[in-house]
């Protein structure tokens, strides 16, 4: 059995797969589905956001503005991986708070499943930007059923 596993390990290494434990080969043989991550999320603890996958449902709203609002609803200090990925999409991370006065930041909690920032813009207008679980954001927006179906 160990000779068979050694041969299997050698063949896997020729295809670029490295096995740390010989028993992993046997475990893989019993798998139906393998979920892998090529983005570095698991290995490097670094998330990335694919700008091409961002879909805007509101007419007249640009993708860059949605990214800016998501960055505003993110922590700029003591960031978790999601906040860092979103703020990292901006040309300059300082853009997230540029030209606004922060009134209150609502951190993520497992009940609300979202974060939010209440702020005042340069013209004195009050705003709240929020990011989080799609079902929470859809509820806040009061979206129509067709939009809800497109999101899910």
Concise summary:
The protein has 152 residues and is an alpha+beta fold. The protein has helices at residues 2-14, 22-29, 41-44, 63-72, 81-87, 134-141, 145-151, and strands spanning 100-106, 114-121, 126-132.
Keywords:
152 residues; Calcium-transporting ATPase, cytoplasmic domain N; 2 domains; 3-stranded antiparallel sheet; 7 helices; magnesium; HAD_sf; ATP binding
Number of alpha- plus pi-helical segments: 7
Largest sheet: 3 strands, antiparallel
| CATH H-level superfamily title of the largest domain | Calcium-transporting ATPase, cytoplasmic domain N
Low-confidence stretches at least 5 residues in length (pLDDT < 50)? none
General form: elongated
Number of strands: 3
Strand order of the largest sheet: 1-2-3
What's the CATH C level of the largest domain?
Alpha Beta
Radius of gyration: 22 Å
Give, in order, the helices and strands: HHHHHEEEHH
Distance between the termini: 47 Å
Strand content: 5-15%
Number of domains: 2
- Level of helix content? 25-40%
Characterize the structure shown.
This protein is α+β, with helices and mostly antiparallel strands and 152 residues long. The protein has two domains: 2-34, no CATH class; 51-151, 3-Layer(aba) Sandwich (Calcium-transporting ATPase, cytoplasmic domain N). The chain is built from seven helices and three strands. It has helices at residues 2-14, 22-29, 41-44, 63-72, 81-87, 134-141, 145-151, and strands spanning 100-106, 114-121, 126-132. A three-stranded antiparallel sheet has the order 1-2-3. A hairpin with a 4-residue loop joins strand 2 and strand 3. Helix 1 crosses helix 2 (22-29). The longest helix is centred in the N-terminal third of the chain and has 13 residues, at 2-14. It is elongated. The N and C termini lie far apart (47 Å).
């Amino acid at each position: 059995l160990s000779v068979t596993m050694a041969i299997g390990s050698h063949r896997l290494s020729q295809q670029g797969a490295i096995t740390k434990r010989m028993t992993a080969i046997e475990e893989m043989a019993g798998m139906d589905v393998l979920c892998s991550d090529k983005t570095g999320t698991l290995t490097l603890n670094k998330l990335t956001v694919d700008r091409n996958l961002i879909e805007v449902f509101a007419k007249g709203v640009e993708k860059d503005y949605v990214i800016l609002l998501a960055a505003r609803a993110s922590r700029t200090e003591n960031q978790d991986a999601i906040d860092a990925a979103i703020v990292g999409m901006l040309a300059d991370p300082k853009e997230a708070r540029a030209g606004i006065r922060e009134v209150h930041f609502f951190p993520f909690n497992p009940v609300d499943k979202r974060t939010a920032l209440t702020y005042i813009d340069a013209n004195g207008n009050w705003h709240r930007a929020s990011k989080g679980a799609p079902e929470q954001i859809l509820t806040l927006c009061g979206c129509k059923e067709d939009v809800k179906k497109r999101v899910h």
